[in-house]
Design brief:
With 410 residues, the chain is an alpha/beta fold. The protein is built from 15 helices and 9 strands. Strands 1, 3, 5, 6, 7, 8 and 9 form a 7-stranded mixed sheet that branches. Strands 2-4 form a two-stranded parallel sheet. Strand 7 and strand 8 form a beta hairpin. Helix 4 crosses helix 5 and helix 11 packs antiparallel against helix 14. The two termini are 38 Å apart.
């Protein structure tokens, strides 16, 4: 991740200059595309595991791992989507029920994770403040919209990112908006989509029938001394090995030796759980969020009213299970599990009367589905995503249908 924390500004200038030449005429901004909107979707930083591996000796998670670095401190408030009080978080209540060896509860952002997010904020600062002067050097509520899932590690990751991005400088209160768990769109929500819940359940059943995955899992469980009765899968193993490696904790030799296989089989399991990412799964997993991203783009192009200044930067604090279907829907998934502090950035450019999208993942420019190069005509980008983007009413309809009706709809 450290190696990815560069702005890639030289590549960016080259791409934009080439785009300006290919359009053949001078527009605003000295004949080059002008940046209009940046949307960043990022995974939280390193954390404690979500659940320990049963049947094996745990590593010790010392409370000092949760200490807050001084440079990441940046006060903020949390509201619901309409400005009311922060909603209740059932996830946080559930995390409190599991305490790891050492006294730390599961799912908590650590000092390492805070530093990762601060570094991501510094990278964004270099790109959008120091190199391009796109954003003000201090936080302004009129320029930035911040939304997060209602989970502490994401809220705290957002704080650290903002501290790095604006170097703890602000002109007005920092507000992070969030939603109730049952209506959240920043992750695949099986709580408000029963059809998605049923398809995930069926997906797990298909994983349990995959001979290759079962054989590899049995082999690792045998080497770890875990009985067949213990509920262990590759996603659980990957979660623990990622957390331990990020904090330089002494992972079990078996986990270290099989780390590449564990990651590959976790990805394989995800594909089977989601029925190889069929259209309907992606519509229900990422469709509402894709629709929100599309709406942000349309508002930047045509503001709803002339007296409302549209945001320049929109931040979404999400999860690995959010980024996975997004990467797949955009046709850029690299078969690697999204690391801690992974970020997907969408830049919107205007050149004369034309609009373009540029996609960056962990600092690397990618070519989305339906596009021929890094600076993609907006129409091509939106047409390719229209298969998966789902408006709220359509989402409710799909989620309430039977599987047979969904297949017929598609």
């Amino acid at each position: 991740m450290v190696g990815a924390l560069s702005c890639y500004v030289h590549r960016k200038k080259s791409v934009l200059a080439e785009a300006g030449k290919s359009n053949g005429e001078s527009g605003s901004n000295c004949g080059r595309p002008e940046l209009k909107l940046v949307q960043v979707l990022f995974r939280h930083g390193a954390r404690t595991p979500l659940r320990p591996i049963p049947g094996v000796d745990q590593v010790e998670w010392d409370p000092t791992l949760l200490e807050i670095p001084a440079q990441t401190k940046f006060p903020y408030i949390v509201t619901n989507l309409t400005g009311g009080p922060r909603p209740f978080s059932p996830y946080e209540e559930n995390y409190k029920k599991t305490v790891l060896k050492g006294g730390v509860i599961v799912g908590q952002l650590t000092k390492v994770g805070m530093q990762q997010m601060f570094a991501l904020g510094e990278r964004l600062r270099k790109c959008y403040i120091e190199e391009t002067n796109f954003l003000s050097s201090s936080y302004k509520p009129s320029e930035v919209l911040v939304r997060s899932t209602n989970i502490d590690r994401n809220l705290e990751s957002t704080r650290c990112l903002l501290a790095g991005l604006f170097q703890q400088q602000k002109e007005g209160a920092i507000t992070i908006v969030t939603d109730d768990a049952e209506s959240e769109i920043l992750y695949p929500n099986t709580g408000n989509c029963q059809q998605l819940k049923r398809m995930y359940r069926d997906g797990w059943a298909s994983v349990n029938l995959h001979q290759g995955i079962l054989e590899d899992l049995k082999n690792i469980k045998d080497k770890l001394g875990i009985s067949n009765e213990q509920k262990v899968d590759f996603l659980l193993l990957l979660d623990n090995i990622f957390a331990e490696q990020a904090h330089d904790l002494p992972s079990l030799p078996v986990l270290k030796n099989f780390m590449q296989l564990i990651e590959q089989r976790a990805v394989d399991s995800f594909f089977y759980i989601t029925k190889n990412n069929s259209r309907q799964i992606l519509q229900m997993s990422a469709g509402p969020l894709l629709n929100a991203i599309e709406d942000n783009i349309k508002k930047a192009i045509e503001p709803p009213t002339s007296d409302i200044k549209t945001k320049k930067l929109i931040l979404y604090a999400v999860h690995d299970v959010t980024l996975l279907p997004l990467l797949i829907a955009m046709g850029v998934f690299n078969s690697k599990w999204p690391p801690y502090a992974a970020d997907m950035t969408l830049e919107l450019y205007q050149y004369s009367k034309d609009w373009f999208i540029r996609l960056i993942y962990n600092g690397e420019e990618l070519i989305p589905r339906g596009c021929k190069d890094g600076l993609c005509p907006l129409e091509d980008f939106l047409n390719a995503l229209s298969v998966y983007s789902t408006k709220p009413l359509v989402y409710k309809m799909i989620c309430s249908q039977t599987e047979e009706a969904v297949l017929q709809h598609n």
